[in-house]
Structure formats: structure tokens, C-alpha cells
């Protein structure tokens, strides 16, 4: 069924749809200039980045330039699709939550907000379909980023970025060395996961001084242990009255960080489980 889809241009049309949906979303949202600026800017960035990267993938494939681009084409399109899925999903959630702040009874602004949200949701679905069509299946030869551990790396880095935003507005990790350790965990694991993504997309996995598969296994185990400590330490030192560090005005952010820390721990745990038994052909 998947090969039939691909053979009849299904993947092409899914990407074309994603380009059109994201283009409409940021074009419509760009007219709402007096809403919460930070929220609108973030959402427009999500749609514009996804639009630009997907358009690049379309142009390269239609012009047959895969062999000339300095990236692994087994890894680049699926990486773009996965990041675009998460970006458009975040915009689809964030934009309607905050757009009411700028309505002020204007039906035109309301219509623009609804249209941007609807097309953002359409784009999210289109990217989900693309990921489903292009991810590796058991026994299939594919690039690392098309495998479950590769897709998990994208999720890990995206969740870490959300955590960075939440802990920095205002800064909520500077009250105790234990909280600073949690921040170190977020940073170290983010850097290493992003390094894996860059190495795979840039076809540089052979540059490591050890076999890539051994590096992945060792890193996955280390990340699980580190995130386990952060999952325990963060809520204890933020909400335990014995430490008295909980600031009620920032409590929603702190709770959200706790949730996303636990979520990333599960991502790394799943990554370790997949990596331990994954057999793939390196890019």
C-alpha cells in the first residue's frame, strides 16, 4: 500500500498540500499585527520555516538534485517532516489559545484567526501523513532518521526547546545546585541529540572516533540515567515546602516543565529500547 502511494505521487501531493496549508496559515496570520506579538511571531515562524523547508525538498526532488545537495537525502526530508509536524502542532495549539486577547469584537480578526488555525491543523495532518509514508518499516533499508530512534531524537530536541523557554521566563533553575543540575541535563542531552541529527543529515557519522552504533547505545543509556535524575529532582526542589522555592506566580510553568521532563524521559527510554535491538544500514 505504501509503495502504491509513493508510486502514484501520493507523497508529492502530501508535500504540495503541506506547502499550501502553511503558506495560507502564515499569510493570514501575518495580517493580525496587533495581537500578542511573541505568540504570533512564534506561530508565523513555525509555518514559514515548515513552508520553506518543504518547498526546498519539493524543488530538489522535482529537479533531480538529490545527489548534488550536501546532505543525506535518506535523512533530510523525514527530518524536515518530523520537525514541521511538531512545529505546526505547537502553533495549532498555541495560536487559538492566545488569539482571543486581540479580538476586541472584530469579526475580521476572528475570521483570520480561525482560518490560520484551521490551515495550521491541516498542515499538521499533512506532515503526519508524510512522516507515516516515509518512515522506515521493519527490515527496510533506510537512513537513521527514518527509524524510530531517529524520529525520537527529533522529539527529544523539540521538547528540550520547550523546556528551555519555560525555565527562562523567568529563570527558575538558579535557586539550588540540584536545579542547576537539571538544567545541565536538559542542555547536555539536547546538544548530544541535536549532534546526532546533524551528523546523520550531514552524512558525518563516520567522523566519530568510535562506531556510530556504539555511540548511540552509550548515549541513550547515559541520557536515560540523567533524565531519570532530573525527573525526580525538578519537582522535589520546586514544589517541596522544605526547600521553599515554589513561586506561585510561576507555578504553571514549573508544573509544565515537570511534565515535559517526564515526557522526555519516556522518549529517551523508548530510544534506548529501540537502539538496543535496531539493525540498520548507516547513511
Automatic annotation (TrEMBL):
**Keywords noted in UniProt:** Membrane, Repeat, Transmembrane, Transmembrane helix
Residue ranges annotated as transmembrane are 12-33, 39-60, 80-103, 109-129, 150-171, 183-204, 216-237, 257-280
A cellular component term, taken from the record's GO annotations: membrane
The primary location reported for this protein is membrane
Keyword Endoplasmic reticulum recorded: no
Where does the protein end up?
Membrane
Question: Membrane topology for this entry?
Answer: Multi-pass membrane protein
Q: Which residues form the MARVEL domain?
A: 6-139, 144-280
Homology family = Belongs to the MAL family.
Q: Which PANTHER family match?
A: MYELOID-ASSOCIATED DIFFERENTIATION MARKER, MYELOID-ASSOCIATED DIFFERENTIATION MARKER MYADM FAMILY MEMBER
| Name of this chain's protein | Myeloid associated differentiation marker
Q: Report the source organism.
A: Echeneis naucrates (Live sharksucker)
Species lineage? Eukaryota, Metazoa, Chordata, Craniata, Vertebrata
